[in-house]
Design a protein that fits this description.
Blueprint: E1 4-10, H1 25-38, E2 42-46, H2 59-75, E3 80-83, H3 87-95, E4 100-103, H4 113-120, E5 123-127, H5 145-162, E6 170-173, H6 182-190, H7 192-196, E7 203-204, H8 210-215, H9 226-238, E8 243-246, H10 249-264
Bound molecules: pterin-6-yl-methyl-monophosphate.
Pterin-6-yl-methyl-monophosphate (PMM) is lined by residues 8, 10, 15-17, 46, 50-51, 83, 102, 104, 125, 127, 173, 175-176, 203, 205, 207-208, 245.
């Protein structure tokens, strides 16, 4: 099956790739509907930037940004994921109709997150994470990045189950670029099969990230990185991932269409 496509909708004034454009809720909802119309299966709404060095946002402010957008998208029939590290925002988004909680901290940033996830019964994306954006670059030290990320995700899973989260609620994500340099990211992508042995679906978030710009000097700006992002989407499909999280839907849809036809030996 072709991976689910998560369309990124950042409603932050400072996000590195589309920040500031969608500060107004109505505009953000319109962009989310457009992402769906372009072929996103779900729109991932985030109100806190996680770009390297970003400062934390107060949960109340995060909710002011995110919740009206979640409500508007749900009212328009668009499936919504909420990108948050805060249990209060996750619960408010669940109440507003979100179907997925996407937590880049994998539950480490907020001790109440697992309780909220268990209570909500929503799908939970637990990303590998070692610390907040202000200091994550200094945390990028591993013996073997794939073995270490796998072990750390496994420890998170054990904790989640203690809190009553169901096994089939959990999707795992290696967290490309989060306390990882370019070499770490490529090793994780090349050895996704090892992460898959944890027995959970995988989500990959490579979209417009710095390591693509480092590989390809011509992909200097974030928008130039949509082509390499789409290639990652196709290869991720081939590796059997459950979902990709991207900014540009048309390029990823094209790449996934090719990957699917290749796999099936026919169109459709
Ligand atoms: N990356 C970002 C934000 N949220 N969520 C998941 N699950 N995986 C990711 O890799 C991820 C994420 C940072 O990128 P953005 O600012 O472009 O959204």
């Amino acid at each position: 099956m072709s991976p689910q496509v998560f369309g990124i909708l950042n409603v932050t004034p400072d996000s590195f790739s589309d920040g500031g454009q969608f500060a107004d809720a109505a505009e953000a909802v319109a962009r989310g509907v457009q992402l769906r119309d372009q072929g996103a299966d779900i729109v991932d709404v985030g109100g806190e930037s996680t770009r390297p060095g970003a400062e934390r946002v107060d949960p109340a402010e995060e909710q002011e940004r995110v919740i009206p957008v979640v409500r508007g998208l749900v009212a328009a029939g668009v499936p919504v994921s909420v990108d948050t590290m805060n249990s209060s925002t996750a619960l408010a988004a669940a109440e507003a109709g979100a179907s997925v909680i996407n937590d880049v901290s994998g539950g480490l940033a907020d001790p109440e997150m697992y309780r909220a996830v268990a209570q909500s019964k929503l799908l939970y994306i637990a990303m590998h994470w070692r610390g907040h954006s202000t200091d994550m670059d200094s945390l990028a030290t591993y013996d073997d990045v794939v073995v270490d990320v796998r072990n750390e995700l496994k420890a998170r899973l054990a904790e989640m189950f203690v809190w009553g989260i169901a096994k089939d609620q959990v999707v795992l994500d290696p967290g490309l670029g989060f306390a990882k340099n370019a070499q770490h990211n490529w090793q994780l992508l090349g050895r996704l099969d090892e992460l898959a042995t944890l027995g959970h679906p995988l989500l990959i978030g490579a979209s417009r990230k710095r390591f693509l710009g480092e590989l390809l000097p011509e992909a200097a700006t974030t928008a130039d990185r949509d082509l390499p992002t789409a290639v990652v989407s196709a290869l991720a499909a081939q590796a059997g991932v459950w979902a990709v999280r991207v900014h540009d839907i048309p390029s990823t849809r094209a790449a996934l269409g090719v990957a699917e036809a290749w796999k099936n030996g026919r169109a459709q």
